[in-house]
Write a structure and sequence with these properties.
single chain; mainly alpha; Four Helix Bundle (Hemerythrin (Met), subunit A); 77% helix; flat
Length: 211
Amino acid sequence: MAGPPAPRPFADYARNRLIESRLTPNGISMTGLALNLAGAVLITQRMWVLGALAFIIGSIMDTLDGRYSRMSGKGSLFGAFLDSTLDRVEEGLVLAAVAWHFAEQGDELPAAACVVAVLGSLMVSYTRARAEALGVECKVGLATRPVRVVILSIGLLFAEGELISDVNLLPAAIYVMAGLTALTTVQRVWHVRGGLREIDTAAATESAPDS
């Protein structure tokens, strides 16, 4: 029979010191914003690997702020709102920088796909928020935030032959993002349609007079 898990004094000490520090979830969120802004600037200068690293680290910060908020008890309703808002801003900044690059190159199709990816990302987030406000859980679809971060990170790391000569995955990454976000939006609309129908049916049954 297995015994109790071994104590983790260093991990517990580090966690407690972090909680007792002046670090706040909002501070982590703003750091993520600064890193994504730096990544966008680096992308406009075609410094792909550095831009990708700034984007990846900034996106990791975006995932840490919510967890740190729950762990430390320092979270607030405004902090949760700020976190969600900055996530959308950060993704839009990086995709706008990529669109700028394509426009400068005269590549109209991938530039247009960037616009579709931005719109699709916003709609993926909005459909979930609106659905949950109406009482329907909505986590269906492939193009969740982590998936989009992975796809875009791969595209940035392997853009314009920066890491591997003659390999440019950035256009393909943008096309995949545009397609998946559009598909996920349709999936969520269909899912919410069914969920709201069930709610309406239940409400109509409850309000119907007994025969």
